[in-house]
Specification:
With about 90 residues, the protein is mostly helical. The chain has 5 helices and no strands.
């Protein structure tokens, strides 16, 4: 049984984070201030270069006024949409 490679989780989380931030109408700098992280860290998260710790995930979610679980759920949903379709083995 071979497994298909998943899309890069960091990049997918970055897409979700960017969408939530822009929907909230705030800059990376404002999000960083609200979440008590560096602005460059927010940029790296959005570009998929870095991934948040669970503590940072909760801080970012609170800063965006969303549930951390929603960010994870949306990331998982988008990962599934971007994953190659599984084929049934004979």
């Amino acid at each position: 049984m071979t497994t298909k490679p998943l899309p890069d989780i960091g990049s997918v989380f970055g897409e979700v984070l960017t969408r939530h931030r822009t929907n909230a109408g705030i800059s990376q700098e404002e999000l960083a201030l609200r979440a008590d992280v560096d602005r460059t860290f927010v940029s790296r998260l959005e570009r998929g270069i870095r991934q948040p710790t669970i503590t940072t995930l909760f801080a970012i979610a609170q800063a965006l006024d969303v549930q951390a679980a929603d960010l994870v759920r949306e990331t998982e949903h988008l990962l599934r949409r971007k994953s190659p379709a599984k084929k049934n083995s004979p």
